[in-house]
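User: Okay, second chain of the day. Same drill as before: sequence in, structure tokens out.
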Amino acid sequence: MSLDRPVSPNPYDLLPQVPSFTVTSDDVSDGQPLKDDQVADAGNTSPQLAWSGAPEGTKSFTITCFDPDAPTPSGFWHWVLVDVPADVTSLDTGAASGDLPGKAFHVRNDGGEKGFMGAAPPEGDQVHRYFFVVHAVKEETLGVDSDVSPAVVSFNLAFKTAGRAILHGTYQH
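Assistant: Same drill. Structure tokens below.
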């Protein structure tokens, strides 16, 4: 069976436009291959992220990692961290498997875990993009619980996002 297919569009280009702000990482270089630490069968560790310049009125953050290039109609969610307090502006390497700030919590990723799942594209498939996004949220809570799907989180973000900071890495197995 061949997995040949067109490259999916940048999913964030398809959402309502919101102001952007800055996200940087010691572990992910924008547009470059991920380090082994962020690969599922190597390190499987969430990357360090730091952000600044969030829009005024930001009351919390949601952090996500999405792969639009998975061979599914809906892509693949690798990480969904909700309700990060507004005074938090960074996460250390491996933060997804440690103590989370404030009342932040994980929603189950598409691998079935509540936490971070590293890159795991099918062997021989096209280059996959991993969009690490910090969503500035207009409310202290997104209004969801840890049992909702990543799609429900994303739907709620469509109405409550004040801004987005985007960084993406790539990986091919």
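The mean pLDDT is 97.

User: Thanks, on to the next one.
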